[in-house]
Specification:
The protein is 7% helix and 55% strand. It is built from two helices and 26 strands. The longest helix is centred in the N-terminal third of the chain and has 17 residues.
Length: 337
């Protein structure tokens, strides 16, 4: 019996020396959840969460992060001695949310039994005007030159019985916009129709429209929009930049926007004599390669001084398509001087 007790005592002592949960670092967080209550859009509020090390070893805060950019947690320190506490400041911005919002702040530590603790924050965001899409951005997929597409931005008044919106156009005039009030005979709903017109030139375009409303606090709302219009023949890349390369080697690929389009690259040249151009039809009516080779002009060349080391030119690609007879691509490279 004495021998059994002695063995048991040795086992317990070995376990204590090995460092069980009682001797390790232990995290305690208070509060584990917090309700900010009713908030307006674009409003910020702050709460402080206390983190305590209730263990016998050093507690390290390995990472403190939130599940969205609307919540910013900031710990005062990342190392806690046994019995020590610190605070984490959590700032929440209601941004353009509407309704019940629930977010989490993740606290990761070296606590072996509880390596991650989630602090849940909640808010009830109220707004007199709901806009859809929430990010107030309208994006169009890539389209062919001459095609038109329309999307809608919906405005809904939550308190006012009648909503009225208006828009005078876009800043750059690239898109067409039209305000429609009492949408579908609902006086509290209006839409802004955003259209990619047939006259929009090729390229990637960004623009925005300023919408006026009769809702207090939302007198003006900026709607961003973007579109990518391409010709019947596409090129990749759309611009060439060699920077400080000692030798030039770049392949520009020409391909049809749609399957079944017949085309031929009839020629290509640049206005930079130091760059040679070769056209190779790799797959008829599917891909043609325009290969650029050469080397930069020397630093002693007058063009280097005139252009402050930045040499610019243009690659011109000619095709047999009547709607896309010429495609131009900017070329740039740098020379140290």
């Amino acid at each position: 019996m004495r021998q059994f007790c002695a063995c048991l005592l040795l086992v317990l002592m070995a376990g204590a020396l090995a460092g069980g949960p009682a001797s390790a670092q232990v995290i305690s967080v208070d509060p584990l959840s917090f309700d900010f209550g009713v908030m307006k859009q674009q409003q910020s509020k702050t709460v402080f969460v206390t983190v305590t090390n209730e263990g016998a070893a050093e507690l390290r805060l390995l990472d403190v992060s939130a599940d969205c950019g609307c919540t910013v947690p900031t710990p005062a320190t990342d190392v806690l001695a046994p019995g020590e506490s610190t605070q984490i400041e959590i700032q929440f911005n209601s941004k353009k949310f509407n309704g019940t919002v629930i977010k989490a702040v993740n606290i990761k530590t070296n606590d072996p039994q509880n390596p991650q603790v989630d602090v849940i924050i909640k808010a009830e965001v109220h707004t007199p005007l709901v806009i859809n899409p929430v990010n107030q951005r309208v994006g169009f997929t890539r389209s062919l030159l001459g095609e038109t597409f329309t999307k809608q931005v919906t405005f809904t008044a939550m308190n006012d019985p009648v909503l009225e919106i208006s828009a005078d156009g876009t800043r750059q005039g690239l898109f067409e916009v039209k305000a429609v009030n009492s949408y579908e005979d609902d006086p509290q709903v209006a839409v802004l129709e955003v259209t990619v017109p047939a006259t929009m030139p090729p390229g990637r375009h960004r623009d925005h429209a300023r919408v006026k409303t009769n809702i207090e606090g939302f007198e003006t709302v900026d709607i961003e929009m973007q579109a990518w219009v391409t010709q019947s023949l596409m090129v990749s890349p759309e611009q060439v930049n060699f920077r400080y390369k000692k030798k030039f080697m770049q392949t520009v690929r020409v391909a049809p926007f749609q399957e079944g389009l017949e085309y031929q690259v009839t020629g290509a040249e640049t206005d930079l004599p130091e760059i040679a151009v070769e056209v190779i039809e790799t797959i008829p009516n599917k891909e043609t390669k325009v290969i650029l080779t050469g080397e930069p002009i020397p630093a002693s060349d007058p063009r280097v001084t005139e252009n402050k080391g930045q040499i610019k030119g243009t690659l011109t690609i000619r095709t047999n398509r009547m709607e896309t007879p010429v495609i131009t691509i900017p070329i740039t490279y740098m020379v140290r001087h």
